[in-house]
Write a structure and sequence with these properties.
- The protein is built from 6 helices and 7 strands, in the order E-E-H-H-H-H-H-H-E-E-E-E-E.
- Strands 3-4-5-6-7 form a 5-stranded antiparallel beta sheet. The protein has a two-stranded antiparallel ribbon with strand order 1-2.
- Strand 1 and strand 2 form a beta hairpin.
- Helix 1 packs across helix 2 and helix 2 crosses helix 5.
- The N and C termini lie close together (10 Å).
């Protein structure tokens, strides 16, 4: 995935933003068809989709604030109005799966992710397993690139097996000045 789709002067169109817009349009169209099919007023569709989009964005920002509480408390205004942290689908899915992982699972997953992002070649996985819970997973870096400001980022896939259910997610993490990796989408 390419985080920046198009850049024309000071106008930047992000891939994620375009996908949100397309998703909202698809939701609008499908909801309109369904309301017509069940003989309801299709004119309420715009309000419903708009409310859902706003709720999704607010929920994503609140989840990011909770996850990054220390950073938020040090500069709340900058943090609230930054351009990061709007991966609502990742937050929703990750939050639901994360609630099913205990602290030991989360620690093993974090260690595996840090190792994979820092030192493993693209396409190779770093696996983790917690014998106490039976949960397991793997992180696989896919593509490494450097942003315009010189920051290194890696796209990755993550697979987690929780309670016999397999979940897969995709994302991008960027290396911070202190050497840690931060998920940006």
């Amino acid at each position: 995935m390419y985080p920046v789709l198009i850049r024309i002067g000071s106008l930047t169109i992000y891939t994620l933003g375009l996908m949100w817009a397309l998703g909202a349009c698809a939701g609008l169209w499908i909801l309109r068809l369904e309301l017509k099919r069940y003989r309801h007023d299709p004119e309420i569709v715009g309000s419903v989709v708009f409310a859902a989009a706003i709720a999704g964005l607010v929920g994503a920002r609140l989840l990011l604030i909770l996850e990054e509480w220390q950073n938020f408390t040090s500069a709340p205004f900058d943090f609230i109005f930054s351009g990061s942290g709007f991966s609502w689908y990742g937050g929703l899915i990750g939050g639901a799966i994360g609630n099913r992982l205990d602290a030991a699972d989360q620690e093993k997953a974090n260690v595996a992710a840090a190792r994979a992002l820092e030192s493993v070649p693209a396409g190779q996985s770093v696996a983790w397993r917690n014998p106490d819970s039976g949960n397991a997973g793997a992180v696989t870096p896919m593509r490494t690139y450097q942003t315009a400001n010189g920051q290194y980022c890696r796209e990755y896939t993550q697979t987690i097996n929780v309670g016999g259910e397999k979940h897969q997610s995709y994302g991008t993490a960027c290396r911070q000045a202190d050497g840690t990796w931060k998920i940006v989408s």
